[in-house]
Amino acid sequence: MSVGKYNPSVRVGNWNEDLCLEEEMLKDFLGKRENGELLAFKRKNLFLKLLQHVELTENDDEKVRFGDVICLHNVFIKENLSISMSESQLQESDIFNCSVSVSPILQPCFRNAFVITSYDRVNKTGDLLCYGQNFVLSALPNQLPNIENLKLTSNPVTFMKHSKKFPYQEVSMTSTSTYLNNWQVLHHDPQMRLETEGFPIKVNEKIVVKHCYTNRALAAVSDYTIRTAFGREHEVAAHTFLDSHKAEKPDNHWVIVAYRDQSN
């Protein structure tokens, strides 16, 4: 009894449907590539938007005000506080929380520029920000819809919630408005805090940024770096590093950059 023999060139099964499916997939890929809809292109565009240059607020009297667009620069590591989103978050339309880090990118951009706002809306745009006064550090509005509602926040340390490398208090950005978003500026010298309380803050003055709810100071952790979508960067935590004189160490020292180019 003879049996039909088939060579490799014989097409069996749903070969026509498979061929059409491959052609449709190729057309879809080419169409997305031409329109810039591929994930690689979207990610690149979002990176470029986050790194787009931002003009900081320039005040003639060099005093910081509510509504100012500023950068927060760590004196010790010499890097800027920055929003640090994962690659998956960069593709989301709405982001409810993300981490922060200090980045070596010193030029002001959407990633490292923030707006000084009021939590209870008592202080209006243009009012002076003073030592010991509560404020909220918010992401720039009306530019990147996925981060415009984010505010700097910190939560008390728990067994399951702390910074990545150390058991320090975690600092992040959140879209939820709570008292945990409130911060205060203190003079970097503890002996000068009573004398300076209530006085206006000037740009490029060394300061300590304290979390109101937990009384922990904002710090750039210099010992280790963490992996981010923008490369390896230093971690940010709410932890007060004290020296032998009970004064904050340089890890807790920051300056508000409101108009002067840091690269000069």
Main features:
264 residues, alpha+beta, ten-stranded antiparallel β-sheet, two-stranded antiparallel sheet, 4 helices, 12 strands, 16% helix, 27% strand, disordered C terminus
What does this structure look like?
InterPro entries: CF161. This is Cilia- and flagella-associated protein 161 isoform X2. Strand 1 and strand 2 form a beta hairpin. The protein has helices at 15-35, 39-50, 87-90, 193-196, and strands at residues 69-74, 79-84, 97-103, 114-117, 136-139, 151-154, 169-174, 183-187, 207-211, 218-228, 231-238, 254-257. The chain is of the alpha+beta class and 264 residues long. The strands form 2 sheets. Strands 1, 2, 3, 4, 5, 6, 7, 10, 11 and 12 form a 10-stranded antiparallel beta sheet that branches. Strands 8-9 form a two-stranded antiparallel ribbon.
